[in-house]
């Protein structure tokens, strides 16, 4: 879940030469505009921009430096596409091998009704495809969709909820069938050369009931299982339980025709929700999740991690030994007769508890990229909340010690508001790319932008980008394609019209040069 914006400073003409042309196209009663730069030269980052600091004797740092942010080092856009979207949201974004970009979005009608649609841009940011997705009556879960490339097109996998119409008075066997019947996976295959598409639907019951019955599962909270796409297969994660036992996680593998290929459950990880599966360099899989447990009036959350092979067999546990979060709620509340508590004291106590909880859950460090095979993770450390300073680190997974430590100092009118919303990825050449929200308070009400930084494998900043600034910036995603960075997001501004506030939404996609 997300936000973003900031004032976009003009790039110094001594660094670049820009020739700009605009092309406008109209469809579906909305205006789409692609602004393209016919010639663009990346701004070279001066070596003195990143100043080295003295490494202390007790530090194991390879890089320790400071960057006083300057917008004149921002490289310019290659192209900038925009489309008006009423209450728009970006739910998925994929870069296809043929150089095109697929965006799965929703548009609202102001009455909490949302219509999903698919947009495709070519490598130059020109719109080549725009179609609605799914039917008009089904309730879709757009947050966990998949996009896969096909011959002359692509497929979109969506989960949709089906209204329950069965009896509530049934046994465990019937209950789990009803829960599984309540969700379906719909595969919609598009051909870019035409507006025709093909839809296939399969219920979770048809896919998983037999596997559940074989393992004695009689309960699952909800069949809205999570989807991910790895090595040409669809991975499905969820939880289920046997009678009078805790729920345990399961992982299944489907082919692109929604046929079940493999299924396994993991009894050693009760009360654990899996939230990530990554492919290791040796073709094993690194699985991450969180165990939520309770004991002695406290609630605990512990990171669980393990490695499995292609047959979904557990190979090695990598879980933390201690919880990363604990919240004490105390024993059950006494009866009113035993202890009278004034409303004023209760409010103060609840406020204190809430404040303590927020501090523990938010913290001052945000880990935004990690991968087991690389033995490192990347994090951001706040000096304080909404500070104009932040520290970017590359850390050793083994002991969390820092390898790189780069302090960013932004102008006094800037704040770093959402460090826990940063994203990052590793390029094949070893460069590391990450995004950072910035707020410019010199503008009334503040405006948000996204800054993007590229570090080489030696820990030196080599590229810097920044989006234009808006009142609101949400749903930010970024991908790499053919040496270019492609960003997609929703922006909105606040306009006071006829005694009412309006927040017009615009979908934007921007390309920047990585090489």
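Sequence proposed for the structure above (515 residues):
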């Amino acid at each position: 879940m997300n936000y973003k914006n900031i004032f976009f400073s003009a790039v110094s003409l001594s660094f670049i030469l820009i020739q700009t042309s605009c092309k406008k196209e109209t469809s579906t009663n909305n205006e789409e505009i692609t602004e393209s730069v016919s010639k663009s030269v990346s701004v070279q980052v001066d070596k003195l921009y990143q100043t080295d600091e003295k490494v202390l004797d007790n530090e194991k740092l390879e890089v320790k430096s400071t960057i006083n942010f300057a917008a004149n080092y921002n490289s310019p856009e290659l192209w900038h596409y925009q489309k008006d979207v009423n209450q728009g949201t970006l739910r998925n974004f994929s870069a296809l091998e043929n150089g095109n970009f697929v965006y799965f979005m929703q548009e609202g009608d102001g009455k909490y009704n949302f219509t999903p649609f698919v947009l495709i841009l070519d490598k130059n940011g020109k719109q080549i495809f725009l179609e609605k997705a799914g039917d008009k009556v089904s309730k879709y879960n757009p947050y966990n969709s998949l996009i896969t490339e096909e011959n002359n097109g692509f497929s979109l996998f969506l989960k949709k909820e089906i209204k329950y119409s069965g009896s509530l008075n049934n046994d465990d066997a019937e209950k789990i069938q009803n829960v599984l019947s309540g969700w379906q996976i719909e595969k919609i295959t598009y051909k870019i050369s035409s507006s025709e598409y093909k839809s296939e639907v399969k219920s979770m019951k048809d896919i998983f009931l037999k596997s559940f019955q074989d393992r004695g599962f009689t309960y699952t909270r909800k069949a809205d299982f999570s989807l991910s796409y790895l090595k040409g297969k669809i991975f499905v994660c969820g939880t289920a339980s046997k009678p009078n036992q805790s729920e345990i996680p399961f992982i299944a593998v489907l082919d692109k025709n929604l046929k079940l290929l493999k299924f396994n459950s993991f009894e050693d990880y009760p009360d654990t929700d899996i939230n990530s599966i990554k492919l290791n360099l040796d073709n094993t899989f690194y699985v991450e999740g969180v165990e939520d447990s309770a004991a002695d009036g406290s609630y605990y959350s512990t990171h669980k991690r393990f490695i499995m092979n292609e047959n979904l067999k557990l190979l090695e546990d990598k879980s933390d030994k201690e919880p990363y979060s604990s919240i004490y709620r105390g024993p059950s509340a006494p009866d009113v007769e035993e202890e009278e508590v004034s409303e004023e004291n209760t409010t103060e106590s609840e406020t204190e508890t809430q404040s303590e909880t927020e501090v523990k859950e938010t913290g001052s460090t945000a880990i935004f990229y990690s991968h087991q095979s690389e033995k490192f993770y990347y994090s951001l450390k706040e000096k304080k909340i909404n500070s104009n300073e932040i520290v970017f680190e590359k850390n050793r997974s083994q002991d969390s010690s820092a390898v790189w430590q780069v302090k960013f100092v932004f102008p006094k009118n800037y704040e770093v508001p959402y460090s826990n919303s940063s994203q990052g990825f590793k390029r094949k050449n070893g460069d590391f790319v990450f995004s950072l929200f910035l707020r410019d308070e010199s503008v009334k009400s503040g405006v948000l932008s996204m800054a993007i930084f590229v570090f080489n494998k030696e820990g030196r900043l080599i590229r810097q980008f920044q989006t234009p600034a808006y009142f609101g910036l949400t749903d930010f995603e970024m991908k790499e394609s053919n040496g270019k960075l492609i960003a997609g997001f929703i922006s909105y501004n606040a306009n006071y019209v006829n005694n009412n506030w309006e927040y017009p939404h615009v979908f934007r996609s921007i390309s920047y040069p990585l090489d």
